[in-house]
Each structure stands twice: as C-alpha cells, then as structure tokens.
User: What shape does this take?
Amino acid sequence: MIKGTSINSLKSRWRRWKCAQNAHVLRVHSAFSRISALPSHLDRIYGGTLRLKSQALASLLILTFSTALLAGNTLPRAEPVPGGIAIISLPASPVPEKDWWVRITQGNAPIPPAAYFNGQRALIIPNETGWAAIVGIPLETTPGEYRLEVQPVTGIKETIGFTVRGKEYAAQYITLKDQRKVEPPPEDLKRIEKEAEQIKAAFAQWSEQRDISLDFIRPAQGDLSSPFGLRRFFNGQPRNPHSGLDIAAPIGTLVRAPSDGTVIATGDYFFNGNTVFLDHGQGLVTMYCHLSSIAVRPGQRIARGAIIGAVGMTGRATGPHLHWSVSLNNTRVDPALFLPGR
Ligand SMILES: [Zn+2]
Assistant: This one.
C-alpha cells in the first residue's frame, strides 16, 4: 500500500511539476518574444537557452525517474519452458520525426510496441535498452523454436525468435472422498460450464497500464504444498495439470494482494470455491481459490499487501490451502517464478 501510494503520488507530483515547468517555459519564451525591441537573434538565444535548460532538466528527471522505476521493478525469473516465462528484449522503436500525429496525440514519452505470442498480447515493460516482453508459455507447448510478433508504434510488424526448452513435471495422485467433485453429475455441469466462461473471461482481461509492479510478495504465509504443473490424477483418473501453486495454511490465514491491482471478479465456484481475480495490468491476472471468506468486491482498487480474503477449503480441496494462479498473455504460468527469494 505504502509503496503504491508513494510511487503514484511521486508520479502525480512529477506530472504537475512538468506541466508547471512547460507552462513556465512558454510564459518566459513568449515574454521574450513579446518584447519586440529584443532583437530576434537574442530572442532565439535566450528563449532557446531557457527552453533547452528546462528540457534538459526535465529529461534528467525522466531518466532518474525511469531508472528508479526500473530499479524497483524486480522481474519474474525467466524460465523459457512450458508453463514458464520468456523475457525477450525488443528493439527500441523511437517515433520518427515525420509521425507528428503520433507525437501530438501521445506526447514525446517513448511509446512501447505491442507484442503477441500465439495471437495473445504480451506484457511489455521498459528496460535499459528499450523494452522487454514478459511472455507466458503455455504448459502444453512442445519444446522448440517460437516467434514473438512485435508491432512497433509506427512501421511494419517484425518477429523475434526464442527457444522453449523442455521440462518434466511430476505426477500427483489425489484421492477425493467426494466423488461428485471427481465426476460431477449432470445437474452440476450447467453450473460448471457457466463458471468456466466467467473464469475464461477473467483471465482474458486486458487493461492498458504503463507502470506495472512485477515485484510480488507471497500472498499467504505457509508451506508450498503443491507446485505448478503437476500432472494430476483424481481417484486414478487423469485431469488437467495443476495450473497454480498451492500454499498450505490454516483456515483463516490472511490472503494478500501480491502487487497493486483491481478486482476483476469474485464468486463461489464449483471447483475453485470462493475465488478472487485480480488484474495487475497488461494481461497480468492472478486468481485466489478455496477461500473461507472474501474481503473485496469487483471494481475495487487494491494495493500491494492489502487483504483480499482468508484461506479456506471451499470447492474441490482436500484440506485448507490457497490455490494461487498467475496468468500472462492469457496463459497460466508458474507463480513461483514471481516469488521473492526464488
Ligand atoms: Zn491448487
């Protein structure tokens, strides 16, 4: 909460300063221009010098500010495997001088390109050389060569190749006493289908946001009981691999937002129990399941560390735990890659 608030207030203070500074430069410059007695070459020199000084100061501030942002933005661990993350540097694409319309509508700040993997838009952050795409790799991906499509602000689309390595995930055999949660009867299927649509829509959420904090905190204290990617068998029957990370903790243990975000949806789902979805911007979506209680409502802005609910065992759960999913470009990835001390 403190971190988000301070960065935001710093940014708004900076924006106000920048506006005031620009207005000041304009005022000074036009004052010089208005004194027609001032020879035009002096106007050029003084007006220009003042403007240059202000611009240099503003650029220095922008540089300091972006460096501070970068320094504070811990990246997830890159692990280009199925269910992992590829971090791909993109060529810097300055807006050409001739594209005056882009400059006027978007300002002089650098504009990130758009990147797509498997047709899904990927998250982009600034880095030292320009931009980097943080790309989620689907668990079912066959190891090999893949391409990221990059659309610069202006100009033609290009592609950047990257390699997905192989990874073997372990198998897990789970015995459930409630057979209904293994093979739901027809009367539950309608509910399950409806909920699947809601869950699909939540993960497909895209919100334009420039400053995204990837510096996650652990959402609940407790042992990591079931890793991401486990190939699971319920009462001997193969089911989808584990699409999240389980943290075992007593019922009532507080669940906190790992990073700033907005609540997309909450609900009580057949398999997932009481659930909260958070949107952290640019397709970075997280999900918290089996909660005993929910402390937030859809549309609410949430700061990093804010309580969103408590651990429980609602839905399909063999014991109290938090099931935590992290999604990038509508692809579930290993949440452990985001955890501190990883
Ligand atoms: Zn789980």
User: Anything to note?
Assistant: The first helix runs from residue 2 to 34.
